[in-house]
Amino acid sequence: MAFYLTSFLPDFWQKITSPRVIRPQDKSTNSPTITIEPTPTPWQQFLGQKLESLIETRSGRYGIYLFYVDKEDDQFLGVNHQERFSAASLMKLPIVITAYREAEKRRFDLTAEYRLKEEDKLAGNGSVHLQPEGTIYTYRNLAKLAIEQSDNTASSVIAKALGEDKIQETIDFFNLAKTNYSLWQTTAEDMGQLLVALYQGKALTPAHSQELIGYLLQTIFNDQIPSALPEEIAVAHKIGLDEQILHDAAIVFTNQGDFVLVIMSQGVSSDQAQKTLEEITKTVWEGFSNQGAV
Fold it and tell me: What is the predicted pLDDT for the residue at 29?
């Protein structure tokens, strides 16, 4: 992934220095199953109907949010995008973004050292819980591991240092109205809007945005959205995985245009969810490619 960091990020920084405005949406109204804004184009109509037909034939629940960040009118397409799901490890995104935002306000020190305690250790993803008690990490190291390895212990240590209120404050700042940290719930739209804010330079400073996107590019999990795209496509993404839960939230970088794609699933085996996730990703990619959008 080092190639991507040196080859496309300079172009990316030119884009975020003049960020576009995310058009606010009225979250108080019930949206239809498919939502396309602001004005649906033929390819959006066709793609939305195709995605809805696809997930209707699958068991479990699915939520999809697609935002074409290179369109001046900020076109997006959603299928069940405002439906709440268990966040799983997608919640690590607002945790880490909160740490960086607090650091920018000089209320949190990313360079401070933390000495691992036995009671910190959480089984599952990541390598931190395998290290001996007393191992020293900086909070920046822990943030990196929380994203790249989806490390449970690393994210938990950061979250405890920040406090639940600070994390929810970040969630509320970005108007992620259906994301609740204490309930560990979110939606495809909310996670998509958080990635759009990161991409457009609205979440963090340019240096911190580059750092976090670099972590997302170097994640060790690449069996989800990236597996259904051409190998040369760079994907900065964060997965969420639990029993009968499989999510992926991604910024997809291409030479012709970039987009954010979030796919959430619940109530279905990981194998079945993976197949459907790949089908959704391929359908999105073909929809863009056939219309010359990507």
Answer: 37
